[in-house]
């Protein structure tokens, strides 16, 4: 791996030399990646496919650490703020202002499936079985959590707070959502049923 191409750090952003090529798998929890002097806004890795996806600006990039010649760049109309692989690793969901998009990770020329709703989408996460997607959506004030089908159907708000609810993550059985909220003052981790309709618990 090129010196300086990636650095272990606790922040979310760093700069890398122009032309750096990432050639090994990266811990998404410990490592910050950059590409061509761009800020990295979001990153995810798939254990099923071995691919790594990350976004900078309006671009989603996909690389294969086992194949240094493989790279896919997918352009969006707006900044990509969230990236998530489906469980099988074949598709990637991205969140942007005005909705989300679904891409096939390895297909070079394609048109994404667009899931459009008004508001700013700043996070996205597939359920463990791949049938649902949780998104962080700012529509009427603060960011709140919504859940929809993987085909974009049935968008439903599941969190209600005067604070900010964000960073949704599914429980392994898909029955609960864990998320970060400042509803109690400072940011804390909460859990609630993925269908909503209940008081979140810390």
Walkthrough of the structure:
The chain is 0% helix and 48% strand. It contains no helices and 15 strands. It has strands at 6-8, 31-33, 42-45, 52-56, 59-64, 67-75, 82-85, 91-104, 113-126, 132-138, 143-149, 156-157, 165-170, 176-181, 188-193. Strand 7 and strand 8 form a beta hairpin. The protein is globular and about 50 Å long. The chain starts with 5 loop residues before the first strand and ends in a 9-residue tail after the last strand.
Topology:
Elements lengths: L5 E3 L22 E3 L8 E4 L6 E5 L2 E6 L2 E9 L6 E4 L5 E14 L8 E14 L5 E7 L4 E7 L6 E2 L7 E6 L5 E6 L6 E6 L9
Features:
mainly beta, 202 residues
How many strands appear in the DSSP assignment? 15
Overall outline: globular
What is the quaternary state of this protein? single chain
Average pLDDT number: 81
The stretches of 5 or more residues where confidence is low (pLDDT under 50) are 1-37
Which range best describes the helical content: under 10%, 10-25%, 25-40%, 40-55%, 55-70% or over 70%? under 10%
What is the distance, rounded to the nearest whole angstrom, between the alpha carbons of the first and last residues? 41 Å
Helix and strand element order? EEEEEEEEEEEEEEE
For the sheet with most strands, the description reads: 6 strands, antiparallel
Strand order in the largest sheet: 7-8-9-10-11-12
Radius of gyration: 17 Å
- How does the helix and strand content classify structurally? mainly beta
Tell me the β content. Answer: over 45%
Individual helix count? 0
């Amino acid at each position: 791996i090129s010196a300086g191409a990636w650095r272990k750090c606790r922040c979310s952003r760093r700069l890398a030399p122009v032309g750096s090529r990432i050639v090994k798998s990266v811990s998404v929890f410990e490592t910050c990646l950059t590409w061509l002097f761009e800020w990295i806004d979001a990153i995810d890795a798939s254990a099923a496919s071995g691919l790594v996806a990350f976004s900078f600006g309006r671009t989603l990039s996909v690389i294969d650490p086992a194949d240094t010649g493989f790279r896919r760049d997918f352009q969006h109309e707006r900044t990509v703020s969230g990236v998530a692989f489906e469980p099988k690793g074949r598709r990637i969901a991205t969140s942007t202002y005005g909705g989300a998009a679904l891409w096939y990770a390895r297909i070079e020329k394609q048109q994404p499936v667009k899931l459009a709703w008004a508001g700013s989408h700043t996070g996205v996460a597939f359920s463990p079985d791949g049938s649902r997607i949780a998104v962080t959506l700012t529509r009427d004030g603060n960011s709140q959590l919504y859940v929809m089908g993987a085909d974009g159907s049935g968008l439903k708000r599941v969190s209600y707070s005067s604070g900010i609810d964000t960073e949704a993550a599914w429980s392994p059985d898909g029955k609960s959502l864990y998320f970060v909220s400042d509803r109690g003052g400072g940011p804390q981790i909460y859990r609630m049923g993925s269908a909503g309709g209940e008081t979140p618990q810390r």
